[in-house]
Write a structure and sequence with these properties.
Distance between the termini: 32 Å
Strand content: under 5%
Structural class: mainly alpha
Radius of gyration: 26 Å
Order of helices and strands: HHHHHHHHHHHH
Number of strands: 0
Shape: elongated
Oligomer: single chain
Amino acid sequence: MEPPHEEFRKHSKHFFFASFIIIAVISVYMVRSYITALLGSIILAYAFYPLFKKLSMKIHNKTLSALIMSAVIILIVTIPVLFAANKILNESVQLFHEVRELEFDQFSNLMKSYFGENIDFGFYFKEIVNGFSISIAQKTSEFVISIPKKAISVFIMIFVMFYLFIDGKKLVELIKRELPLKENYKREIFGKFNDTIYAVIYGVVITALIQGSIGALGLWIFDVPSPLVWGIVMTILAMLPFVGAFLIWLPAAIIKLSLGDTFNGIGLLLYGLFIVSTIDNIVKPKIIGHRSRIHPALVLLGVFGGLKVFGLFGIIVGPLILAILTVFLEIYISEKNEPLL
């Protein structure tokens, strides 16, 4: 029979773990609606921490530096997004009104020459374009309107990010110290964490710049007005999940076809499908995979899976989770039955 104090310690230990699990579950349940905001604050704070560190060394005031960095990040994120949303909204409304006044006789006659006289291609094409332009206008306006509704999440993200700039280093050091793994494994995990975050950000930005530049070139080749401005908009859109550069080149191609400019319309459509859109699916995984040292297939799965589960910041969280998983698998394979501590 165990001594009374040993039995008491045993019960205390069980009570502690049971209480901890219950409180942890309740805590996660309470903040579940703001998980994306918390993930966003961690990612943004981690990504911009080197700039914060340089700024705080010059100012010698962490609180003021964190405040300045938070303001800068807000401007960097909101101004380009609102600019792109405004341009798309205006153009989609204009496209809708233009389509209502256009006659598709030239396009319809061209299609009939290939497919016969039985189908009114002009009518169906006009209906498709109408639906597409209305959909773009609705989605864009819904996004702009939803911004105030998401004010609490945005506030939480900025608030947490502000304090992560100030105390984030202490938090990382605490996690490193308490993580029950060998020192070399800790370095490997945090190294992979660092490499993956910066690789994804680098990959997204570089791919978007390439898409915007090549997209602008295509708009110029196929005689679309203001190709430079639309190239900038395409660059911004290419950085955002669930949207992309196609919101610019596809309506432009449709307008060309509706106006009877068949060569430029079909040319821009093929250029967008096989060149501009291909960049996102091929170049981005390769760039991220090369810099983060994980397979491009895992990067692609991580991006799409992360977007589905975590939303906007899933584009970084998804590959990051799979990258950390590969590290744990490597640790397991190298250690197997040997102690990890």
